[in-house]
UniProtKB/TrEMBL annotation:
Binding-site list for Zn(2+): H158, H304, H308
UniProt entry keywords in alphabetical sequence: Membrane, Metal-binding, Transmembrane, Transmembrane helix, Zinc
Name of the protein this chain belongs to: LAMI_0B07734g1_1
UniProt keyword annotation of Cytoplasm present: no
PANTHER family recorded: ADIPONECTIN RECEPTOR PROTEIN (PTHR20855:SF52), ADIPOR/PROGESTIN RECEPTOR-RELATED (PTHR20855)
Predominant location: membrane
Biological processes per GO annotation: intracellular zinc ion homeostasis
Length: 335
């Protein structure tokens, strides 16, 4: 779909539209103004040949009514939209001012950096036991890599989604693939420690997880399931994927007893993790709190931001579970 209205207004010194665009630039100046009604205006003034001035005034933020149809997703968020940029540079510049995707970008970009640093330096951060080996580093790195992939794909998507419908569509698919990567890497890594002495159990449940992951990835990449109508069902499928973590816990309880499984899989932390994921997905699905006060949570505090924060909290709970399970295995081997 082509959006006809240009957000740019070209004015000369005396307010007339007469300066050619291809004149060589001599000097540039940029000014940002906040209008009385709260609309942020960005003015770029360029001094060009023969002391002529080209002034470009652009509104930075737009309302739900002004953005093109393809950018509309949540009608309870009224203001703070970055209009379709068609420019990678303008998407990057949008990182420097607040708009309704800013918190979505940074709530995943900053933790992604921490995940990456932890992965690079886990040799020094991890408690080392006499029996700690390469496989431990691989399993812990697997989870950290899954977390980094998820958070980085998500923040990149939120940064570039104002570019164009094509970029937003592709980025959204990568965003879902990132979630799949996080769930698969989380489950396989903890299963390794939970069933460290039972290879058939580890392989069975890991295969189940990977199969579920492939199914979810396929649904995420298929255009048919990407419409707004399918959003609650997509979210439910991902929740079901997360809930499939219960299967190895139940199987473990039958095989080893509840008490032993509780410590092997660090079930306390896995439960916290599940609660945070489900709460995040629920808020995202029902669009709370912006649903009860449309326009009040445009920049800060809307459901997608809460979802992002809860995903990070849940991932931290999983990391705690993983470290606990890792320590338990090695303490037992040493004893
Ligand atoms: Zn997101």
């Amino acid at each position: 779909m082509v959006f006809e209205v240009s957000p740019f207004t070209l004015l000369s010194n005396d307010g007339k539209l007469s300066i050619p665009m291809d004149e060589p630039t001599i000097k540039q100046r940029q000014k940002v103004e906040v209008q009385p009604e709260g609309v942020i205006m960005e003015e770029r003034t360029t001094l060009i040949k023969d002391n002529k001035v080209k002034r470009v005034t652009k509104r930075r933020l737009y309302t739900w009514d002004e953005i093109p149809e393809w950018q509309r997703d949540n009608e309870h968020i009224i203001r703070g939209y970055v209009m379709e940029t068609k420019s990678l540079r303008d998407c990057i510049i949008a990182l420097t001012y607040w708009h309704n995707e800013s918190i979505n970008i940074y709530t995943h970009l900053i933790p992604a950096c921490f995940f990456l640093l932890t992965m690079l330096f886990n040799e020094y951060l991890l408690t080392h036991f006499r029996t700690t080996g390469l496989i431990d580093i691989i399993m812990i790195d697997l989870f950290l890599l899954g977390g980094f992939t998820c958070l980085m794909m998500s923040s990149t998507f939120h940064c570039l989604k104002c570019h164009s419908i094509e970029v937003a569509t592709f980025g959204n698919k990568l965003d879902y693939l990132g979630i799949v990567a996080l769930i698969v890497s989380s489950m396989v890594s903890i299963l390794y420690y939970g069933f460290f002495d039972n290879l058939p159990y580890f392989l069975t449940f890991s295969s189940l997880t990977i199969s579920f992951g492939i199914a979810c990835a396929t649904v995420s990449l298929s255009d048919r399931f990407r419409t707004r109508e399918w959003r609650p069902y997509r979210a439910m499928l991902f929740v079901a994927f997360g809930l499939s973590a219960l299967i190895p816990i139940i199987a473990g309880a039958f095989r080893y007893g509840v008490k032993e499984t509780w410590v092997r899989i660090q079930v306390k932390w896995v439960i916290f993790e599940g609660v945070f994921y489900i709460l995040g997905a629920f808020l995202y699905g029902v669009r709370f709190p912006e649903r009860v006060a449309p326009g009040k949570f445009d920049i800060w505090g809307h459901s997608h931001q809460l979802f992002h924060v809860l995903v990070v909290v849940a991932a931290c709970c999983h990391f705690r579970a993983l470290l606990g399970a890792y320590a338990l295995v090695h303490k037992r081997i040493v004893l």
